[in-house]
Amino acid sequence: MRKKFSLNFDKYKILFALTAAALVMITCKPANEKNIADNTISTETKLVDVPEASLPNAPGAEAFRMNCMICHSERYIQMQPEFPGKTWEKIVDKMIKSYGAPIADSTSQTIVNYLTTIKGKN
Amino acid sequence: MKLILYAVCLPLLFVACNQQVKEAEQQPPFNLVKDEMVKAEGKDSMILLTDRPANLETPLKYFKQDFTPNSVFFVRWHLSKLPAKIDLDTFRLRITGNVAHELALSMNDLKTKFEPYSIVALAECAGNSRSFFDPRVPGGQWKNGAMGNAKWTGVKLKDVLESAGVKPGTKDVAFNGLDAPPLATVADFIKSLYVDHAMDGEVMIAYEMNGEPLPLLNGYPLKLVVPGWYATYWVGMLSDITLYTDTFNGFWMQKSYLVPKNVSNGNEKPDSLAKDVVPITRLDVRSIFVSPEPETVVKSGQDCEIEGLAFDYGAGISKVEISADSGEWVNARLDNEIGKYSWRRWHYTWKPPAPGVYTIKVKATNMKGETQPEHQWNRSGYMRNEIEVLQLKAE
Fold this sequence. Notes:
The complex is a heterodimer of chains A (122) and B (395). Chain A has 122 residues and is an all-alpha fold. Helices cover 61% and strands 0% of the residues of chain A. Chain A is globular and about 35 Å long. A five-stranded mixed β-sheet of chain B has the order 6-5-14-9-10. In chain B, strand 1 and strand 2 (45-50) form a beta hairpin. The N and C termini of chain B lie far apart (77 Å). Classes of the chains: A mainly alpha (122), B mainly beta (395).
């Protein structure tokens, strides 16, 4: 993307400046959303400096990241054994009721589905 | 001018964006079991459970040493807001609540106004070995490395509380550290002890472990040490002690770290969960293998030195027995006791009679005759002390 841009830079610099701005807004949207969660933990310092683990992309991944990563790193889920959907339901319910996770009822099922997809078993 | 602006800003924007793209493209493989090692702030290479908050396990090889080095002593935090630095000039330990006079003690106060006190004690996480429960349970998936033995130096909690003047009617003493929740709805991590326990002259506030200040990740500058009790009570970065005339009602005492009531070894069954649950307390009797490590191949017809560790809540280990290949239980040799709250090392010389795969079991018994169960399970994966099994292949 950058290469194409630089080739045409002289001719269409203003057009590209605008496109670039738009691209930044679109492409970086997930990053901005992530930052919303990060801001709630802004005073935290990373004492264990490891690259962010990455959970598989599946439906519900974004809902998981937005809601669960306020308290947990992705590694916490990566470390968990596989559980039946019912168990994941109980776990997510506990996070809402006992720890006040700000998860809407509709989103809660999305997160359960995601966890069951990546860490589920019968 | 404009051009310079574009030349500088646009590539920056694109670099920022490309990084996002790169991240998406370069998803690391999703690995479930392989140990990931990490060197955290002030620590040597340890097994990474989670990075935020830090939860790090001690590799088994370090248990060959009677005192677990501070640099690899296990790390367990619940809440992700941890200070990265603590300034001793301004740090104070506050004693408040049902006391004659509230105190705010500096590190210097603790070191100069109170008699120093030392004790050797094993810190074992309540969830140590959780990953071995069958069926599996959610939570930190520790192997046997969520524990460590250290010589703790500091002051007796009793001396500090007496200096504040414990007022009559005190029931619970609560302990809070500088760690904080990332969400306002998550309860701050506060633990409590009955006042009689807090005043027993053994519970202490440590400013040193193994002769050095505590590593930040192990609770610098002060850690509550509750000998014989699970490490969930050993509050790190201890900053506030509050005396209550009533039962302390905090979440981490009333809703978490609960085990079935009146059931030894915290045992229950998946299909009939215990109805009555109570806060976890002291360590059950337990023994583990340290060496050889699992999957080691040994030589048939030759002596194989097996060693491990045994411990309990302070009654003292009376014997450790080994059963090789479903054979009779025979006594292992015990090293000298280091202290009643320390672990105690055992040795057993075993000669595999022929090539094959062997199952070795270890079982400890304490001075009160308490021993380990053949099988154990509870929903939260606490207090694991099931008889350990080591499989060795002889060639």
